[in-house]
Design brief:
45% of the residues lie in helices and 14% in strands. The protein is of the alpha/beta class. It has an 8-stranded parallel beta barrel with strand order 1-2-3-4-5-6-7-8, surrounded by 5 helices. The longest helix is centred in the last third of the chain and has 18 residues. The N and C termini lie far apart (42 Å). About 2% of the residues have low confidence.
């Protein structure tokens, strides 16, 4: 089986447009015989889906070119998680190849409601949730987590993952503890150790990947590698290809066009364009004049004006 590369789920970043661009870059520049490429949706709150599915279902939007897409849910309410997983398994099976429980993101507002990384603290309760989710769905089921709450918790976390392994099809490990957040020095040895103890389990490593060369190095001991921060504004990281300025411009314009196509109202479009700036600023990072370009972008709200500003910035091509 080929190793897997993944675009990590990031709320407010990896929407349908972002994933579509990543898939296009992969299909255009990648050695298709070397890796498989998988995508995750943005996080979707199970509590929000129970209360008002129309309010959160946009997190699961996709495009026809996206392949190997996994729906990711989060929350601390077991009843809501089971209900959401069951509905996704029944009504959205044609969109996704699996469902994943996120129990690793350290956002405080969600942890207060017993979601994400807060699930790591109460391992007995979390193991029960995992077992019940496994019974609820017949699609592939996976979890994404961390190395523990802190350094002292790592041994307990390793034991927890060994216990959870029979009930999941894949485990993704972010190589930092909850206390570390997104700080430096992810612990890849923890991930390798888990793989050694679970040689038949699919283990994906995440954290600290900065280049395609680093992907090659990390994935040798694992079944795959997931990338988050380094992929924003740089979907080429999944390939050995280095983009030309013209390729960057074309990709940016395609990305913003996808955003426009998926927003029917001016209000929604402006909100999406605000979020797009996070991608745009990463796309132009390191290009001379990018600092001034970003300052001017902050005052632009209209789609056409922003597109023209982008084209003018690359007019030296």
């Amino acid at each position: 089986m080929k190793p897997i590369l993944w675009l990590a789920p990031m709320d407010g970043f990896t929407d349908a447009a972002c994933r579509s661009i990543a898939q296009y870059i992969r299909d255009t520049y990648w050695d298709k015989d070397k890796y498989d490429f998988f995508l995750w949706t943005e996080f979707m709150t199970a509590d929000g889906f129970v209360r008002n599915p129309e309010w959160v279902i946009h997190h699961l939007e996709t495009t026809p070119n996206q392949k190997n897409l996994i729906a990711q849910i989060f929350g601390g309410n077991e009843e809501a998680l089971l209900y959401t997983a069951k509905k996704l398994n029944k009504d959205y099976k044609n969109r996704f190849i699996g469902i994943e429980l996120n129990m690793g993101c350290p956002a405080n507002n969600v942890m207060k409601s017993w979601g994400w990384a807060e699930l790591i603290k109460n391992k007995k309760r979390s193991l029960k949730i995992i077992k019940n989710l496994r019974k609820t769905i017949d699609m592939p089921f996976s979890i994404k987590t961390r190395t523990g709450t802190n350094e002292q918790d790592k041994l307990n976390q390793l034991e927890f993952l060994l216990q959870a392994s029979p009930y999941v099809d894949m485990i993704t490990i972010h190589g930092r503890t909850t206390a570390q957040g997104y700080g430096p020095n992810p612990d890849r040895n923890f991930i390798y150790q888990l793989k050694e103890q679970l040689p038949n389990q699919k283990i994906i490593g995440n954290g600290g990947i900065a280049s395609y060369e680093d992907i090659e190095k990390m994935r040798e001991n694992l079944d795959g590698v997931m990338i988050w921060q380094a992929a924003i504004g740089n979907p080429w990281i999944f390939t050995p290809h280095l983009p030309t300025p013209q390729e960057k411009l074309t990709t940016i314009l395609n990305h913003i066009q996808l955003i426009k196509e998926r927003n029917s109202s001016e209000e929604h479009l402006q909100r999406s364009l605000m979020e797009f700036r996070k991608h745009l600023y990463s796309y132009v990072k390191g290009i001379p004049g990018s600092k001034e370009f970003k300052v001017e972008c902050n005052h632009i709200k209209e789609y056409d004006t922003l597109v023209e500003h982008i084209k003018n910035f690359f007019s030296w091509l």
